Amino acid sequence: MSAAPTVGIVGLAGAYGRWLERFFRERMGLAVIGCDPALPDGPSAREVRDRADVLLFAVPIRHTARIIAELAADMPERGVPPLWLDVTSIKQAPVAAMQAAPVEVLGLHPMAAPPKSPTLKGRVLVVCEGRLDHWRGFTGRLLDALEAQCVHCAPTEHDQIMARVQALAHAAILSLAGVLAEDEAPLSPPAALLPYRTPIFELANAMMTRILSSNPQIYEDIQFGSQAVAPILDRLAVRTRALADLVADGDEAAREAFRTRFLDAPRSAFGGAPLGEGNAGFERLAWLLADLAEPRCLALHLPEDRPGALRAVLADFEQHGISIESIHSSRSPEGDVQFRIGFSRQQDDTAIRAASARLETAGLACVISLQL
Ligand SMILES: NC(=O)C1=CN([C@@H]2O[C@H](COP(=O)(O)OP(=O)(O)OC[C@H]3O[C@@H](n4cnc5c(N)ncnc54)[C@H](O)[C@@H]3O)[C@@H](O)[C@H]2O)C=CC1
Ligand SMILES: O=C(O)C(=O)Cc1ccc(O)cc1
Predict the structure, then answer these.
(1) Which of 304, 291, 297 is nearest to 371 (CA)?
(2) Three-state DSSP class for residue 83
């Protein structure tokens, strides 16, 4: 094997396959080959397996263990065992299938959709170490280059955790979406409720619409792909039934049972400090939502990514006596940083329009939109 290993990606044309191809080429400087039924002119999976030093599986959850097992079954002898990796949202079955091959094994689970950014910086990456010896140094460099917040656990522990972090959370959100979808006008479509929103409902709506807009196969397979899920969903159903029964009873005893089982017990299980931190996080999001709801705003991006670029924009506002009410950065679908600047109703429209024009003419900002 050469000093710079060749990476093979099974599932090269998929969302993570494409992101990882770019990551390995551009951030690690490695040659990447791959296969995918969506790339019929490319090499076969066995060709990729035999040419790659590092083989990564990024295929649909429901097919992953089978695809790995098929490639493991007729694996030719190699002097140095290759490294096999996967990024599947479940870990027990894929890691077990890789362990059955004469290879070194590392299971990964990025806890985010493939980002617009070139690394997983700011995201969590679950790492399930299977069997590492020759490849230990390389996997250390890989994890460093990914820049994620790594957490380590065993595959079975991972699946128990994901039955809660993913399957249970998604089930609750999809059940909420399903109940709302059953209603009729004027209570439906669900968006008809948004003018009456609370911050909690607005965040719930963001979660419902996120899941319903994403790859449906993933959300199906997260429910159906792990044996850890069904018992957790039973507990959700029992608890929801119990709550509905208490509310139907409606007497003081039912209220007392609600307070004990649905408020006090979870409150003490969460613990004082985590409750405080979580609640403070919610407050920050609620403030953000309130700022974003302010319709008077200027959205812009800074063409020059240099220190002082934002300061020059703010200096123009200062010179012309324009106060801003909020400023938030986000990313466009292409990954460019955008700033959204909110103005109070007291600020003069003409002055804001003139500032917007000046910033563009001076090349200090590209104005994406101006709403007054
Ligand atoms: N998209 C996401 O938000 C996340 C995905 N993942 C994991 O990444 C993996 C891939 O997911 P995505 O890229 O989102 O799915 P995707 O559906 O975009 O891509 C899967 C690719 O695998 C290909 N494929 C199917 N059968 C194949 C076979 N026999 N050989 C080679 N390629 C085959 C498909 O043609 C497709 O291009 C899954 O295991 C998923 O759990 C993990 C975290 C987040
Ligand atoms: O986009 C989001 O918010 C997600 O939660 C995406 C996602 C989907 C599947 C995973 O296993 C991990 C993350």
Answers:
(1) 297
(2) strand
ipTM: 0.99
Model-level pTM?
A: 0.92
Retrieve residue 89's tokens: 């949202």
Query: Which ligand is nearest to the Cα of residue 210, counting in written order?
Result: 2
- Choose the residue to mutate in 68, 91, 218, 226 for probing ligand 1, maximizing ligand atoms within 8 Å of C-beta: 218
Atom of ligand 2 nearest to the CA of 109: 11
Summarised one tens digit per residue, pLDDT across range 256-271 is 999 999 999 999 999 9
Report how far residue 221's alpha carbon sits from residue 147's, in angstroms, rounded to the nearest whole number. 27
CA distance 128 to 97: 13
For residue 43, count CB atoms less than 10 angstroms from its CB and return exposed for 0-12, middle for 13-18, buried for 19 or more.
middle
Give 318's Cβ-side CA count (13 Å radius). Answer: 6
- Specify the CATH number of the domain 294-371: 3.30.70.260
**Binding site membership of 58 for ligand 1 (Cβ less than 6 Å):** yes
CA distances from 210 to 28, 170, 175, 207, 281 (A): 31, 11, 14, 5, 20
From residue 80, alpha-carbon distances to 8, 129, 131, 297, 351 in Å are 16, 19, 14, 59, 69
| 7-153: CATH superfamily | NAD(P)-binding Rossmann-like Domain (3.40.50.720)
Count of Cβ atoms closer than 10 Å to residue 191 Cβ: 10
Please tell me if the CB atom of residue 89 comes closer than 6 angstroms to any atom of ligand 1: yes
**Rounded Cα gap, residues 159 and 89, in angstroms:** 9
Return the pLDDT at 141: 98
Ligand nearest to the Cα of 167, by number = 2
